[in-house]
Amino acid sequence: EPEVTQTPSHQVTQMGQEVILRCVPISNHLYFYWYRQILGQKVEFLVSFYNNEISEKSEIFDDQFSVERPDGSNFTLKIRSTKLEDSAMYFCASNSGLAGTYEQYFGPGTRLTVT
Amino acid sequence: DAKTTQPPSMDCAEGRAANLPCNHSTISGNEYVYWYRQIHSQGPQYIIHGLKNNETNEMASLIITEDRKSSTLILPHATLRDTAVYYCIVRVTRNSGGSNYKLTFGKGTLLTVNP
Q: What is the residue-averaged pLDDT of chain A?
């Protein structure tokens, strides 16, 4: 069964460093998302991406964040200068975009620890 | 966005049906009810969704009241692997009828299936 994959599973970085989290959505899916979950808190929407541009972003997704689909398979989230409060699980998700299919498929997540 | 209210936790005996309630009294006529679950910090997993009619798939059944102000997710024969946080989400659409939408997660219900 197709699945969303994410790498790395755990990333440790120092405050102020840049990190790139990588995701491979399900092949042929058209809509892509990033969510994050701070330990013990809710899953929060960050950004949605379609047709090589951001469709919607939350207040969390400020100038320090960017997303990119550099090729036909990868979808990345970059944090330019990490802060302690960026420590969280980051989930990538994708959706096929086919009529009548509204479910999002989530990856296993990347645990980001900022020290 | 229509808000949802769920009990924070529930217990269920293995092999019995688990009935998870959700209130969404402010739901709009064209908003769907979605259920996802998250097993121990893994990525959320889609379960089922519905608009007006009751729905059933291989994982669960969804019962939506006639006034659509509440719904119940039913796991017919709960197993230990069904222990998870279950989220009831009312779909937010960016574009009417489109597949590009964000999911707004609440705190959900922690279902514990006991042996």
A: 94
